[in-house]
């Protein structure tokens, strides 16, 4: 089953709970961090709206 | 003693001709195509050797039975055991290789291939048996005719059904709207990163498979059949993908409403005709074929509960 392993967002109040959350300054940084996480973790970055990425592991 | 000496010994003629026909039928069935499996030449040697042994066993059985040596039949039983191991061998090899594929075959495809390898050995036993029987009972000319018919039948049934027999295949445009990728009207997946969206927009090729019947609808829902399509087409057209790129994944998704199957490919080869042929020729997996309409068929006037 797929698992959310990290969250990248520009709006800290969007994220709660026990997940690694990367809080970024703007959209450009958010996209960049999401890209790096995708490559490092070999897990797909999915975009849920304008200000939130989730990194999903399907292994 | 000349070369025709063998024809004066009908048992020996039967065994020799049966073995030759059986081995030839295995050779004809051992077509190494774009899938490069079995790999040339070592994989082929294994299967040719096993096919020849199978043929020899099949052809020896006839003279033994004619001499009322009924224990000969136990040899066929032993042979069956051997060829079951062929299925195991193929399954193990393919499963091990599959872990290293960018687009895996999937277990259903592997099982299907393994079963075919086992089944073809039995076919070559049967061809050898029939030929040998023809020679022993009616002479070598009849045996030769039976052998040729057997080879013809083998050639005819070498190729099974393909996807185009069950589905109408059409091109469909690939759309990426924001993070959402579509093939035609079928939602495929959410792609987060802008560069991956751009790659899918640029490279992506979409197909929509419409089932030709209610039976075909069930076949297309089979996950193994879908994975087989993705694997086979990716082998034939190449794939724009690497390890550590989880977003660039060829994908097949069902439109639940209509039963149509959307396929998103990331091919290297963009020739539309080649691509269409690649999808059309994907083999239909035996394990994926279902016939629900046959089970649900009722004669007119029959009560609903039979």
UniProtKB/TrEMBL annotation, chain A:
Q: Which domain of life does the UniProt lineage start with?
A: Bacteria
One Pfam family per UniProt: YIEGIA_cap
The molecule here is called Uncharacterized protein
Which organism encodes this protein? Cohnella thailandensis
From TrEMBL, chain B:
Q: Which residues cross the membrane?
A: 12-29, 45-66, 122-155
InterPro entries recorded: YIEGIA
Which branch of life, at top level?
Bacteria
Keywords linked to the UniProt accession? Membrane, Transmembrane, Transmembrane helix
Q: What is this protein called?
A: YIEGIA domain-containing protein
What organism is recorded for this protein? Cohnella thailandensis
């Amino acid at each position: 089953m797929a698992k959310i392993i990290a969250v990248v967002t520009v709006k800290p109040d969007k994220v709660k709970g026990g997940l690694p959350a990367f809080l970024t300054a703007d959209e450009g940084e958010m996209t960049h961090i999401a890209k790096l996480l995708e490559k490092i973790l070999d897990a797909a970055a999915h975009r849920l709206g304008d200000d939130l990425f989730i990194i999903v592991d399907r292994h | 003693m000349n070369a025709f000496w063998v024809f004066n010994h009908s048992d020996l003629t039967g065994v020799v001709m049966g073995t030759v026909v059986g081995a030839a039928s295995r050779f004809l069935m051992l077509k190494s195509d774009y899938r490069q499996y079995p790999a040339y030449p070592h994989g082929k040697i294994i299967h040719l050797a096993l096919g020849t042994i199978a043929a020899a066993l099949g052809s020896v059985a006839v003279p033994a039975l004619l001499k009322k040596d009924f224990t000969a039949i136990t040899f066929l039983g032993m042979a069956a055991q051997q060829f079951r191991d062929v299925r195991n061998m193929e399954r193990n090899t393919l499963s091990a290789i599959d872990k290293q594929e960018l687009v895996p075959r999937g277990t259903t495809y592997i099982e299907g291939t393994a079963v075919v390898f086992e089944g073809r050995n039995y076919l070559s036993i049967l061809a050898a048996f029939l030929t040998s029987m023809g020679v022993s009972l009616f002479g070598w000319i009849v045996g030769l005719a039976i052998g040729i018919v057997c080879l013809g039948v083998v050639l005819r049934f070498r190729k099974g059904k393909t996807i185009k027999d069950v589905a109408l295949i059409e091109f469909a445009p690939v759309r990426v709207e924001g993070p959402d990728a579509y093939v035609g009207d079928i939602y495929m997946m959410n792609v987060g990163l802008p560069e991956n969206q751009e790659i899918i927009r640029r490279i992506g090729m979409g197909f929509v498979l419409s089932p030709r019947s209610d039976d075909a609808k069930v076949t297309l829902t089979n996950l193994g059949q879908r994975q087989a399509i993705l694997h086979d087409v990716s082998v034939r057209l190449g794939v724009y993908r690497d390890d550590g790129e989880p977003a660039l994944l060829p994908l097949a998704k069902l439109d639940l409403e209509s039963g149509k199957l959307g396929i998103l490919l990331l091919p290297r080869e963009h020739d539309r005709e080649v691509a269409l042929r690649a999808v059309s020729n994907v083999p239909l997996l035996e394990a994926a074929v279902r016939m629900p309409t046959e089970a649900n068929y009722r004669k007119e006037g029959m009560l609903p509960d039979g």
